[in-house]
Design goal:
This protein is of the alpha/beta class. The chain has two domains: 42 residues, no CATH class; 307 residues, Alpha-Beta Barrel (TIM Barrel). The chain is 45% helix and 12% strand. Strands 1-2-3-4-7-8-9-10 form an eight-stranded parallel beta sheet. It has a two-stranded antiparallel ribbon with strand order 5-6.
Amino acid sequence: MSDSVQNLHAACDCATPRRGFLSGLLAAGAAAVLPGCAGPNQSLTGLRNRIDTHHHLFSPAYVAELAKVNQAPPIVRNWSVAKTLEDMDKAGVATSILSPTTPQVSFTDAANARRIARESNEWVARLSQDHPGRFGSFAMIPMQDTDSALRELSYAMDVLKADGIGLLTSYGDKWLGHKSFAPVMDELNRRKAVLYTHPTAPSCCRNILTPEIPPTVVEFGTDTTRTIVDIVFSGTAARCPDLQFIFSHAGGTLPFLTERLVRAPIIDSKLAPRVPRGVLTELKRFYYDTAWAMHPMALASLTRLVDVSQILFGSDYPYRTGEDTIKGLIDYGFTDAELKAIGRDNALRLLPRRAA
């Protein structure tokens, strides 16, 4: 553990900060971390140029559509640009790559999905123009039919200059390795694009627990793992080596199940040709974010599977805050260099234009 991390647990001494503390944290960051030293809008560490790759938005028009199908809870209705900027400033986030969360446009028919996705993507593009450098986007595309998905993909990437595409982990009873999604995956691979994924509850597994247990508790992590398994063993990962995948929440239950995935082609030789580079090679090249995974149980497992270079800062705002995430990463014991990599440098490899 670095000196800066160890000193987070020391008593606050704003007047005479320790040398080890200052070696890792700026004084402004210290004020935000230690009790009794707090100041307004100060970062938890000296780093104030973080890139948040898991940050949600809800345009007014999109909220109105969700409300029609009773899928606009208070946390969605109360989202605002001002609140999201406030959260970013408190956490030292320079840029958030915005994406709609589940259900995206999966709740409606194809024609309506096309309209809603276009309206939302254009609204985010205008928001980015109004706040230069503060916002990017993983654009939403209507997956109800392939032609519509490809048209919106092209419009979002070429006209709106989106940073990548955001998909759900599953649509109905199909995960992202399904053959019907191959044209979208192949086009993203051709573009060497970034594909951010967000979990949802698949048709198979909704309302299977007591009503008091929402799908976020179990199904989200599980569905992320399902889609990773499907991408790998459908051959999609091997076929699309230039497509950069981001998986939410530290990959869900994937790290725990890695050994089962590795042995699957050994047990069933028919799977081996679909993973010519090996299962671990594919799993280790994927990126995983820290949303709801900034705790030792998840991080201890994830960091045994992948290098820190594959971990991205993700807050899941407004469902969690940037400060929540940073505190968890610091408490885990990452070094200052590792915090910088997770907070910014790794994202810049995927999104180099965000360096400006």
